[in-house]
Amino acid sequence: MTTRSPVVDALPDAASLRRPVGRRLLWVLVLTGGLVVVSVASVAFGTRDVSFDEIASAFTGGGGVGEAAVIARVPRTVLGLLVGAALAMAGLTMQAVTRNPLADPGILGVSAGASLAVVSGIAFFGLSSSTGYVGFAIVGAAAAAVFVYTVGSLGRGGATPLKLALAGAATTAAFGSLSSAILLPRVDLLEVFRFWQIGGIGGATWERVQVLLPVLAIGALVCVLCSRGMNSLALGDDVATGLGEHVGRTRLVASAGAVVLVGAATAVAGPIAFVGLVVPHVCRMLIGTDHRWLVPFSALGGAILLVGADVVGRLVARPTEVEVGILTALIGAPFFIWIVRRQKVREL
């Protein structure tokens, strides 16, 4: 009797790759509509609610008491869309590259590596520009990804879901402790980055969006170009090689795209976990496992989830707000347990 792989249920099969195009397009339209709804809600709701007439007036230059609130919330909404899309695409890519249904930038310690690099750059190198944050974060994310995959690959069986998850959890805890140790003696920095370490988009500015946009565009383009190769990787290394896929190169390039997305997103929003875990699995259930569709579809889903969570965080604790990183953790932790049980990851 043959033993099924613990991740076999997350891999593409012929039926899912042939999922009707009409159904996929329908879901794309549904998610596009959802994106519009959460974007409008993000601009309209907050400490002070803004009417739709005031929103229209702000965009047409008509003035009004709500114009300042609208102007302040638009860059926050755009940043949330970009960060959510980036984290979802990165999570999808990591799951495809590692063939691990539990892969996520937060779970595997990649976000923690980016955070530690930014904190170290600020404390020891006087880092102050958004461009510097992004550069340091990408380097830190890359180093953490290599470290976790190396540790998870040690021993018998290679990089199993259990060993990667444990290596990622240990790395996240260690990097988080190091970040705290660096910040604690520096009270001025600790206050500034206390909420950043939780993960949030409250400090959004157009300058941050302008720095983030081209970097995310590069990372997203790499993931899109590797989508066909990700389909091959999901069939196994031997089959992928037989299909003419250069397995090592595809893994390296796709991983680089994911690292760029995670590093840039973490640099401006902090380590936001579970978006890259929840969204790809939901998208697979809706449109199948063809990565040529999943990559852009996950981007839409991630944007909706993050901006929607940000809106909820503003409404549940007014006049203050709950950071979006807390809400995504509340959503993602039960989902993580459900995925472990559903995928029957025996090692766990």
Automatic annotation (TrEMBL):
The keyword Phosphoprotein does not apply. It is found in: Cell membrane. The keyword Thylakoid does not apply. Its main location: membrane. It is a multi-pass membrane protein. GO terms for biological process: siderophore-iron import into cell. One of its GO terms (cellular component) is plasma membrane. It comes from Microbacterium proteolyticum. The lineage of its organism: Bacteria, Bacillati, Actinomycetota, Actinomycetes, Micrococcales. This is Iron complex transport system permease protein. The chain crosses the membrane at residues 25-45, 77-94, 106-127, 133-152, 164-184, 211-231, 252-273, 293-312, 324-341. GO terms for molecular function: transmembrane transporter activity. Keywords: Cell membrane, Membrane, Transmembrane, Transmembrane helix, Transport. It holds the Pfam family FecCD. Belongs to the binding-protein-dependent transport system permease family. FecCD subfamily.
